[in-house]
Amino acid sequence: MFRIVVAVLVALLAVQARAQVTGSATFVSDYRFRGTSLSDDRPAAQLAFDADWPSTGWYAGGMMSNVRLDSSHAAQLLGYAGYVRRLNADLSWEGGVRYTRFTGGESYAYAEAYTGLTFRQLVGRIYYAPNYFNAGYATWYAELNDSIALSGKWYAFAHAGYLRRAGDVAEYHVSRFRSDVRAGIGLTLQPWDIQLSWTTAHGAPDVALGYPSAAGTSRNAWVFSVAYAW
């Protein structure tokens, strides 16, 4: 899967159409991924970039973040590439692949393929990872994301996700499912964006899903973030 991501990125760079490139730098009080803290309930700094080729429908991008895995500091490196097609004024379809790995002794490297639909501000996606966090089993993850404008520069946003892992979980005596929810408010002060949200997760524990161990992390947390975009 990693070779597929690289091949797609190389193909995109070869496209003659000029790309529209944007980027952002973000500080978060806790880096939460699908309800799990990848920063051990601690702050994290992140850099991201996106490149779009509007005339072709192709896009690509990447993200870097400091993390804390297995009680050690590390960095997450994520790259993705995809294709989006507008079906009508309100509805669009997309599909793509992404690859994630971490620095340190254990890379936890894995790839995912995804597809989704966007209707106005509502975004729904389904992800499939054949070897989630390099733990030896596949997972499916479905999510819905939405946002709504409030008064002035304020807005509200929400996320709901549901993960199912394959393989035997009898040794853990737990469920193979997990749900996560995130909701909050944001303030846009271009080029700054400020958010405060509440996140929670229910179901299978981190160890049953292949996530790196982070003793003492909470399933419920307030998360504050400040992002600067260019």
From TrEMBL:
InterPro entries: CHP02001. Keywords: Signal. Residues 1-19 form the signal peptide. It comes from the Bacteria. Pfam families: Gcw_chp. NCBIfam families: gcw_chp. This is Uncharacterized protein. It comes from Dyella nitratireducens. The lineage of its organism: Bacteria, Pseudomonadati, Pseudomonadota, Gammaproteobacteria, Lysobacterales.
